[in-house]
Amino acid sequence: MIPSASALLDWYERHRRDLPWRAPPGGRTPPYHVWLSEIMLQQTTVVTVKPYYSRFLSRYPTIEALAKAPQEDVLAAWAGLGYYTRARNLHACAQQIAALGAFPSTVPALRALPGIGDYTARAIAAIAFGVPVVPVDGNVERVTSRLFAIDTPLPAARRLLAQQAAILNTEPAAQANASDFAQALFDLGATICTPRAPTCILCPWQPRCSAYAQGIAEKLPVKTPRGAKPQKYGACFVLRDRHGAVWLRRRPEKGLLAGMTELPGTNWRLEAWSEQEALSHAPAQAEWREVGFVTHVFTHLTLQLTVYDAQISEFRSHPLGEGFSCSVQALEAQALPSVMRKCLALAGLS
DNA sequence: AAAGCGTGGAG
DNA sequence: TCTCCAAGCTT
């Protein structure tokens, strides 16, 4: 039996979350805002996104303003949010859309843009343009797996769950209210059909939920466990001149933290570095002092950095490698990822 | 198509 | 401390 779309829409009308990128009932969020929020929300919580979203919109009120901005500035505005390829794709995407002259409104046209995959294309189409499609994100996968009691483990079950989710969309009420229906599914997953301890008592779809009937809602969806992440080691150097400025450099255009600003340092490897070996990678000869360690967990590795600091009189009187000088006041505007901000904080900066 | 790609918060 | 998680995309 197909759960009733109108039951969900009624529930949504009463319990919808008030979010910065969500228009009041009856209103419509501009596609630029929908798109920006969707990119920021990829693998990122609402609480984390909120301050970034409002800051980003004040800085780039229109997609044209974003398109014209230097990539460095966009990365700086994104610093701390993670998954920095999103920011690079966002910028490239803004330029493509600005060149088009209008925001694409169909799933295939959206899908062709950088940083927009199957999920995001459907989300923008449904939310901003009312196209009757269901965006299948983690919320919808969870809701669907419980509704139909699908215990095939993710990510193998992804296609099956997408097919089942499409069944939800066969009702006229769902198709006629595509924007609300999509967001209602998100809210159901975020507030009722939660990963742990779902509140099935309050769920508008509880009478039709197969997992609830079997008492296995909390066990779904099943996920294949992932392997342990390797531990890596590195060292970085906080070099200051007598004016207090810091020596920084830009990371390579590909790979981890691509294009972001960093402290100069060693590469990151599985084997720990001896002090002597680490210091041979220092940006200058100086009296280096070990400040301490920073541990940072990335998606696929754990990194331990040894932080050294030293002071010299003038940067230009030393043979420094690639890099640039940055005043302490200007650090905030740099595209410094969180791991680097931790290192700077340990050395007493920022 | 499996792996790479950030971060901070909750339990 | 540790594991899992949050509106996934790209190669």
Summary keywords:
single chain, 350 residues, alpha+beta, Endonuclease III, domain 1, Nucleoside Triphosphate Pyrophosphohydrolase, 2 domains, three-stranded mixed sheet, three-stranded antiparallel sheet, 11% strand, DNA-binding, Adenine DNA glycosylase
List the helices and strands and how they pair.
Blueprint: H1 5-15, H2 31-41, H3 46-59, H4 63-68, H5 71-78, H6 85-100, H7 107-111, H8 118-129, H9 138-147, H10 158-168, H11 172-176, H12 178-192, H13 210-214, E1 231-240, E2 246-250, E3 261-262, H14 275-279, E4 289-297, E5 302-311, E6 324-326, H15 338-346
Parallel strand pairs: 1-5
Antiparallel strand pairs: 2-3, 2-6, 4-5
Helix pairs in contact: 1-12, 2-3, 2-8, 8-12, 9-10, 9-12
The chain binds a DNA duplex (11 and 11 nucleotides) through helix 2, helix 3, helix 6, helix 8 and helix 9.
Describe this structure as you would to a colleague.
By secondary structure, the chain is of the alpha+beta class. The chain has two domains: 5-219, Hypothetical protein, domain 2 (Endonuclease III, domain 1, Orthogonal Bundle), CATH 1.10.340.30; 231-346, Alpha-Beta Complex (Nucleoside Triphosphate Pyrophosphohydrolase), CATH 3.90.79. It is built from 15 helices and six strands. The strands form two sheets. A three-stranded mixed β-sheet has the order 1-5-4, with helices on one face. The chain has a three-stranded antiparallel β-sheet with strand order 3-2-6, with no helix packed on it. The termini are far apart. The chain binds a DNA duplex (11 and 11 nucleotides) through α2, α3, α6, α8 and α9. Its EC number is 3.2.2.31. It catalyses: Hydrolyzes free adenine bases from 7,8-dihydro-8-oxoguanine:adenine mismatched double-stranded DNA, leaving an apurinic site.
